[in-house]
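Researcher: I'd like a candidate sequence for this fold, 229 residues long. If you have to choose between options at a position, lean toward the conservative one.
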C-alpha cells in the first residue's frame, strides 16, 4: 500500500509539473503548499461492519481531533483521536427468547491511531484542492461491559487506512472531508456457543467463528488550523 501510494504521488507530481508549463505563475491552477503543523477538529458518522450475533458496538455520531506535521515533501505524520457515541444490545446467553435480551445500552467507542499521510499532488494544490491518502495503526477501546452479558470488547489492535480531500484556500485555515476504514478484530465469548439448559440453540451458531476481522467505516468533515509554519 505504501509503495502504491508513493507511485501515485509521483505520477501526480509529474503531471502537476507538466501542467504548469505554458502558464504564468499567477494563472497556474497549481499553488505551493506550506508545510508545518496542522490541528483539525472533525465530526461525522461511524458505520461498523457486520456483527452476526448483534452484540458489538453499533454505529453513531463520530467526532474527534487530529494533529499533523509535515515531515518532508508531500508526506506528513498524523495522530488522531475519535469518539463514537454508539449503542449495543447485550444478551444473556443463559436465557432464550425475549428473556435473553438485556435492552439497549449507550456506549462510547474510542479510536486512537497514528498514520503516514501523503498528498497525491505532491507539494502543490490544484485549484485549491489536495487529494490525500493515509495508512497507519492504532487501537480501539470501549466501555461496553454489561452485567449478565459475558461479551467484552477489549482493546483490539486496529489497522487504519483512508483517503480524503483538502480544500486549501490560502492562509491558516483549511477544510477537508475524509473516509477512513478502521479494521479490527471482533471476539465472541465461549458462553455464546453453549446452549441454554432448556436445550434451545446457543446465541452463536456452531459455524460462526469466535473471532474475525471486520471493516468499520468513518465519514467525516473537518476544519483545520495551521500553525508554526
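Model: Candidate sequence:
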Amino acid at each position: 500500500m505504501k509503495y502504491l501510494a508513493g507511485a501515485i504521488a509521483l505520477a501526480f507530481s509529474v503531471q502537476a509539473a507538466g501542467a504548469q508549463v505554458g502558464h504564468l505563475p499567477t494563472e497556474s491552477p497549481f499553488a505551493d503548499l506550506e508545510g508545518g503543523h496542522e490541528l483539525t477538529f472533525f465530526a461525522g458518522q461511524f458505520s461498523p461492519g457486520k456483527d452476526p450475533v448483534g452484540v458489538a458496538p453499533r454505529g453513531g455520531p463520530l467526532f474527534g481531533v487530529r494533529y499533523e506535521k509535515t515531515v518532508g515533501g508531500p508526506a506528513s505524520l498524523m495522530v488522531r483521536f475519535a469518539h463514537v457515541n454508539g449503542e449495543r444490545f447485550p444478551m444473556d446467553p443463559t436465557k432464550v427468547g425475549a428473556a435473553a435480551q438485556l435492552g439497549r445500552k449507550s456506549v462510547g467507542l474510542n479510536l486512537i491511531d497514528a498514520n503516514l499521510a501523503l498528498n497525491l499532488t505532491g507539494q502543490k494544490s490544484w485549484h485549491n484542492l489536495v487529494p490525500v491518502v493515509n495508512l497507519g495503526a492504532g487501537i480501539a477501546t470501549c466501555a461496553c461491559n454489561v452485567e449478565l452479558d459475558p461479551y467484552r470488547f477489549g482493546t483490539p489492535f486496529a489497522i487504519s487506512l483512508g483517503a480524503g480531500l483538502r480544500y486549501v484556500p490560502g492562509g491558516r485555515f483549511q477544510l477537508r472531508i475524509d473516509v477512513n476504514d478502521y479494521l479490527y478484530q471482533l471476539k465472541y465469548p465461549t458462553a455464546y456457543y453453549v446452549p441454554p439448559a432448556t436445550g434451545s440453540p446457543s446465541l452463536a451458531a456452531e459455524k460462526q467463528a469466535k473471532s474475525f476481522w471486520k471493516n468499520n467505516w468513518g465519514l467525516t468533515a473537518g476544519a483545520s488550523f495551521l500553525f508554526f509554519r
